[in-house]
Amino acid sequence: MARVIAVASGKGGTGKTTISANLGVALAKIGKETIVIDADITLANLELILGMEGLPVTLQDVLAGEADISDAVYTGPAGVKIVPAGISLEGLRKANPDKLEEVLYSLLDIAEFIIMDAPAGLEKSAIVALASSDEFLLVVNPEIASITDALKTKYVAERLGSKMLGIVVNRVTKLSVEIAKKEIEAILEGKVLAVVPEDPEVRKAAAFGQPVVLRNPKSPASKAIYELAGKIAGADVKIEESGKGFKRLLSIFKRR
Length: 256
Ligand SMILES: Nc1ncnc2c1ncn2[C@@H]1O[C@H](COP(=O)(O)OP(=O)(O)OP(=O)(O)O)[C@@H](O)[C@H]1O
Ligand SMILES: [Mg+2]
Description:
Layout: E1 3-8, H1 16-29, E2 34-38, H2 46-49, H3 59-63, E3 74-75, E4 81-83, H4 89-94, H5 100-105, E5 113-117, H6 124-131, E6 135-140, H7 144-159, E7 163-172, H8 181-188, E8 192-197, H9 200-207, H10 212-215, H11 220-233, E9 235-240, E10 249-255
Parallel strand pairs: 1-5, 1-6, 2-4, 2-5, 6-7, 7-8
Antiparallel strand pairs: 3-4, 9-10
Helix pairs in contact: 1-11
Residues 9, 12-18, 40, 43, 120, 170-171, 196, 198-199, 202-203, 206, 221 line the site of adenosine-5'-triphosphate.
């Protein structure tokens, strides 16, 4: 039975899609059956950052009752399964977001993790995504506006019956004005599971349509995301170098 984890935020642009895609790939890489579903049907871009655009059947078609979910599940990098949202405006008009929970339900038996890239804000599609999840990760940037908006999302998600798994602080630089991890934990009343640095490799990888955790597994952001995957999966993940340059070897040392 899959754990359905929504990747949510208050403000837009904090890094939800980046975290969802790369966390999904990292979980797949450590041997977990994982589906990443793009629940942001108005501004879909999961498929773009994974270099999988133009897929024939999408979540929009499924939510419109015109396709079966099994036809909208594709195999992506490192074997992660992807459900793209679709980018057609006509498809968006026909899609009924209320069907999302039913769609997720039919995926529960084929994965261990369903990572859901949730829309920003608290519009209907965001509410439906949060309500359909068991747990959520809050992706914030170390700025006060990002954190106060995330607090609203947290309250709403909890009211909808989802449990906060933890906080991901993304795009962290060394600037002293940035809010410290401890303060973020106090404001959001939760644990910071990952501090992901601002890392130029993230954008480079996205421009090439490749997950940064595969393209550059040793980059600072990738390391933080692998660690996050290990925590979520209950395993310690180590990225080792082999004798021949930068070859990736992931070892699972212990399982909870
Ligand atoms: N750690 C990082 N270092 C550098 N750039 C990053 C990092 N995380 C995300 N970005 C960049 O920030 C931008 C926004 O990221 P992303 O699209 O993942 O945010 P989002 O929360 O999904 O946005 P939206 O709310 O619009 O869906 C992208 O250009 C992405 O490449
Ligand atoms: Mg996004």
